[in-house]
Write a structure and sequence with these properties.
Blueprint (H helix, E strand, L loop, with lengths): L9 E4 L6 E2 L2 H7 L9 E6 L5 E5 L61 H5 L1
Antiparallel strand pairs: 1-2, 1-3, 3-4
Length: about 120
């Protein structure tokens, strides 16, 4: 799992060390050498888990952006982790009055609070 690109669709096989990485930054962190440039890239689709090759010397067409086995679109805009500052509510374990479960129906009626209970029991 890549911590640099959150929505990586393929793994890339590095031509220098023949190991699989999700992005070039992962290779730079784990390998002791620089990433070697190559004309042919080997990818592995994370959806169907099948490897395929792409020639990078020819013109890169729109059809080349899809996995040839499962048609997964792997050339998409990368989502990178960003720091977020937000306001959190109170701890629900301490005060759970603010949590309401919509799956539970409102049970206002009880057998002990119903009207005409004496008449129904006899």
């Amino acid at each position: 799992m890549c911590k640099h690109v959150l929505n990586a669709q393929v793994a890339i096989r590095a031509p220098c060390c023949k190991k699989w990485f999700d992005c070039p930054q992962c290779h730079a962190e784990n390998a002791q050498h620089e990433l070697k440039k190559a004309n042919e890239m080997i990818f592995m689709c994370k959806k169907c888990r099948k490897a395929f090759r792409k020639d990078m010397t020819d013109s890169y067409e729109e059809a080349d952006e899809y996995c040839p086995h499962c048609d997964n679109h792997y050339v998409i805009e990368a989502k990178v982790p960003t720091a977020a500052l937000g306001v959190e509510g109170e701890d629900a374990r301490v005060d759970n009055r603010m949590i309401r479960d919509d799956r539970v129906k409102d049970q206002t009626g009880s057998a002990f609070v119903q009207k005409d209970l004496d008449a129904r029991l006899g």
